[in-house]
Amino acid sequence: MTTSSLKPDYNSLHGPGESNFSSSSPHRLPTVSAADALAKLKNSAMRCVSTGLRDLDAILQNQNPAAPADEASHAFKGGVSRGRVTEVYGPSGVGKTAFGMQLTAGALHAGRAVTWIDASHPVPGPRLSQIINSYKPVSPPRPLSSSSHSTDLSESLTHFSTPSLAHLLALLAYQTANPSQITSLLIIDGFSTLIINAFPRNPDSNGTPKPGVPRPTTRKLPVLTHLLKTLQTLALTQNIAIVLLTHCVTKMRPGIGAMLVPVLNFPAWEQGLGCRVILFRDWGWEDEDGKAFDLRLAEVIKAEGIESGGRGRIAGFGIDENGLHSIAPPKLLRRTPPSGLSPPKNQIPLSSPCLPQNPRSNLGKRKLAATDLNFEIPDSEAEDDEDYGWGDEDEGTLPAMPPQWQGSEDILVSVPEVEEVQYEVGEGDGDGDGEGGRQMEFLGEAIDSEDELAL
Amino acid sequence: MTDLTAVLPDFPTQSFSRDLSTLEKYNVTVADLLTQKDEELSRRCQLQVGSVDVRRLQAAILHTLQNDLGLKNTVSGVGAQNTKPLLRKSGKELFNSWSTISTLDDDLDRALGGGIPTGYITEITGESGAGKTQFLLTLLLAAQLPSPKGLSSNVLYISTESALPVTRLSQLLRSHQVLQSVDPKPSLDAVMSIVTPDLESQDHIIRFQVPVAIRQQNVRLIILDSVAANYRAEFDRPGAGAGQTSGANMAQRSSELIKLGQLLRDIAREHDIAIVVANQVADRFSNEGRNSPVLNRDTQSSPLARRCGGGGMPSSSMAAPMSSLSDLPMATQTQGPSTQHPSGTVDAMSLAHQQRWFTGWGDDLYPSHLTLKSQKTPSLGLIWTTQIACRIALVKKPVYDQGRMADQENERGEPVLRTWRRWMKFVFAPHARASGPGLGGAVGFEIQGEGVRAVVRSADAGKEVGDDDGLF
């Protein structure tokens, strides 16, 4: 395994470094003020890959999404951070691949190169071409590329299929040793498939293990940690946004039911990610005629290395032939289907006082019925944790549950006012206050019974 | 190494046979080999630390993998590279290599974004009698047509239950205009079929015989009808293995499904063929008030207001684990305590809620009572859903007629089942737009002599557009 002798050119990867040493002599100190450097850093297009959705771009950078088109928002370019590893997870059909394709279109239009890795299903070529052709940048485009047609931009698109984890590891090793100057985005579509296939559950692992022979499953954590480290290093040193599109599995939560959780769900993984987004679907209807439309939501539960703590901020979007398009906040706020059904009592004031609920009292009231403990859910993966020995340690660090459309006082821990603030995508003021409070400590009670469900 | 034959079947093992067998003994996988330093590995396998062989093996494996990925410019000495397509495509190749199999009906094709694509696993799911087999038989013939309608290839039909319905197939061939007007006509000779009544034979056939058939017989469409049958038979028996509980049963079933999914995906990708899988459904039980935010209407207008309204609200927690997740037959189902629960308090990331959109049933904003009662969930759960790329749901709804007179079987003139209406709903796919919520975007169809034919129909099982025969 030889390392390439070609040293990555720092300036071309990270942008002209005014705040870096501008001469070869290490004794020259930078002569730019930190504030200037920071401002330049924030506004640099070298930092992000746009998602094509204005609100989501802002949220991913921990900015307020609603600022109307003004000076600041034009200069600000948000999106998925380069130099970090981002995970986007959600159930089948929610639009993960489409999201990846839109990111690809954004990066290609910005004149950069993209590497797409198929780990599960192949990316549909014609659809990708269509999305690239019809891509409209969030902020006015700079004339970086001479043409924006997909056939020309396709030169900058590199595609791989990795049928196994070993293939991915080999590919990453190669990329690390042979840095590209212009790649800004690396997408691994179906990343979780590789992990699941590489570490199959061994139903007969209950037999006595041979002495001195490590059980296959105990290698999972070291391999994943190594993989994460490789991804982080690759992202950081080559200023690439690495986006992992992953699936969900079900996990039984006593008292709640089966929940969808990401396949990779252990503390070291979550800490290593720079950003985490959940894509999910929910009811959506048009204001006037109550016609249903296809609403999808993206919740950012970790951005720029900062966990949102409770619920993350949401952006709404829809998908059509040309890719993803934003769905404006007012539609998200509307909670009742109009007319004919029940008179909408003018918009419920969003700061209406609600009785704070004490979740512990609720949980205490409900006794676990006998059937709960015996109930087998075929999809349940609860027993997996026992195989890997992670059952206990990862409980406390589950990703926060995304906001429910209509809320549940059982799960909600903090004052319900937080929920209204959640959907006020238009007004970012209240966000800071409300979000910190949501903790998951009530799960501590439920954890023990989880073991009883497991086998 | 334990998984070398799966990852790199063509790797020249002769020069490394001794080391490989040692590594195998210690359960070292290829991924292990690539992520552990050679000293660690040597220590773990009780080889001499610093032995050159491990390092050489690591380098050789890495080189072969990178070669397969098309990363090395120089052609290695391994000749196998020529026969195996590289795991890499250029942008242009990506955009231009796309083929589909038509359903021989324009409206259905349009809804599917052109037809059934190659390179993917497509699932067709629905109740028995919904029309799955008809769809599949049509594809068996359409695939033989030249492009753009087909792939000019032979086809393979793997059945897990009954043999290929040849009579119906020849009827389709005779009756369909498109099939008759093409030269050369599709024929039954091009259809290979095999029955795999249990999991073991299914696995063996798919793993070993299918790749041979593909190569030797130019097969580019494989149909598996149905995928659920063997798994339900094998894993739903209580105490199937020695002392295995049903939970461990389920875990084993999941890992079998994952292996099958990977096998099929690899076949589809490597040979660029279309794999179509039929799946069964089970009834979905759900609490009355949870299916739609609008259903549980009371005096207050919005779910939000109901939540915050203060007293009088049942403080019960979420209902017990949803029985909708099980695909065990109704009779053996034990339901958890069902609590009366104000609607709209379902957590968004619960399986019950999200599955409305990836199963094909439950995403109706204003479901009728009948719809609520007849929701289905495709078998094999989320694990299998993750393995497939596209899902097509065939929904069928009964149309009732008023019983007219007391001398019919029901004396009180209750509604009598008159006929079924069917819709094809495109649930999800990476390459095309889904049908959308409810049945509004789904394509109504009928099963006729010549196969499956789209008809224009409104979303409720009511008046059919253009049908002058008055209903009800």
What does this structure look like?
- The complex is a heterodimer of chains A (455) and B (472).
- Chain A has 455 residues and is of the alpha/beta class.
- Helix content of chain A is 32%, strand content 17%.
- Chain A contains 18 helices and 14 strands.
- In chain A, α5 (96-109) packs across α6 (125-133) and α8 (165-177) runs parallel beside α10.
- Chain A is globular, with a radius of gyration of 24 Å.
- Mean pLDDT of chain A is 69; it is low at 1-6, 332-401 and 403-455.
- Chain B is an alpha/beta fold.
- In chain B, 48% of the residues are buried.
- The longest helix of chain B has 26 residues, at 246-271.
- The termini of chain B are far apart.
- Chain B is 34% helix and 17% strand.
- In chain B, α11 runs parallel beside α13 (246-271).
- Chain B contains 17 helices and 14 strands.
- Mean pLDDT of chain B is 77; it is low at 75-84, 288-346 and 462-472.
- At the A-B interface, α6, α7, β5, α8 and α9 of A face α3, α5, β1, α6 and α13 of B.
- β5 (157-161) of chain A pairs antiparallel with β1 (88-90) of chain B, so a sheet runs across the interface.
